[in-house]
Amino acid sequence: MEKQFWAESWELEGHYTSFHRRDVHPYVLKHLTPYALMDKSVFVPLCGKSIDLVYFSQFAERVVGVELVEKAILRFFEENHLAYEKKGERYVSGNLTIFCKDLFALTPEDIGEIDIVYDRASLVALPLPMRVEYLQKMEELTSPGTLYFLNTLEYAPTMDNPPFSIAPDDVYGYYPNYLIEHVESPELPNHGMVRKHNLYYLKEHGFMMRKLHDAAFASLVESATRSFYEFS
Fold first, then answer.
1. Do residue 107 and residue 204 come from a single domain?
2. Is residue 129 part of a domain?
3. How far separated are the first and last CA of the chain, in Å rounded?
4. CATH of the domain at 100
């Protein structure tokens, strides 16, 4: 899932960007309420042109997104009729900042202290080797106490392209230093992916996770990498 893949996806759009929702995700409205967002800093990795950013910016103190493809960022501001100022690699509109940058080059100094991470379509977008790098980067960017809201898809038969299937057991393995509450797991028989790929089933999971402490990721990386090569 290199830069060219995502650049071409946003250039073609249509079903190539079917991961983009035209509404605020219902899990956000249910679990990240205006009260929960009050006075908080929210980070949205691989944000695309998600309208969830608009919702967060209405209630949170500060919202930070990062997106590799500039076209997605420009479309976000255009479609939501938001004025912005470009400051180097930052696109700033009020309390919302979107970095046009590779997530893996982002630093804690770039984004500042983060209270909430919202990951709807980031973890599921990455094949396992990059997923391990992503976990390491998010560990670097967050501190103990951070609230992490994660959405994943679980389906069968699995596919070797995004969005990848990530089951609850995978999540518990990926985040050993988090207190995890599995808050959503409906089966969605009418999801577009079920029809398109003739899936047996598809579930959309939601997890509210609280970072308890910094983790030593060496064993996780080794275990995940070993599993990848054993089953590939």
1. no
2. no
3. 17
4. 3.40.50.150
Q: Are strands 41-44 and 62-67 parallel, antiparallel or unpaired?
A: parallel
pLDDT tens, residue by residue, 111-144: 999 999 999 989 999 999 999 999 999 999 999 9
Same domain for 3 and 109 = yes
CA distance 216 to 196: 40
Length of the chain: 232
What pLDDT digit, counting tens, does each position of 191-209 carry?
989 999 999 999 999 999 9
Residue after which a domain boundary falls, among 77, 104, 120: 120
- Cα–Cα distance, 172 to 177 (Å, whole number): 9
Measure the CA–CA gap between 75 and 72, rounded to whole angstroms: 5
- From CA 134, how far away is CA 119, in angstroms rounded? 11
Residue with tokens 């219902």: 26
Of 70, 84, 76, the C-alpha closest to 50 is 76
Strand partners, 60: 38
184 DSSP β-pair partners: 206
* Domain contains 221: yes
Q: Structural domain of residue 231, as residue ranges?
A: 149-232
Q: The whole model's pTM is what?
A: 0.87
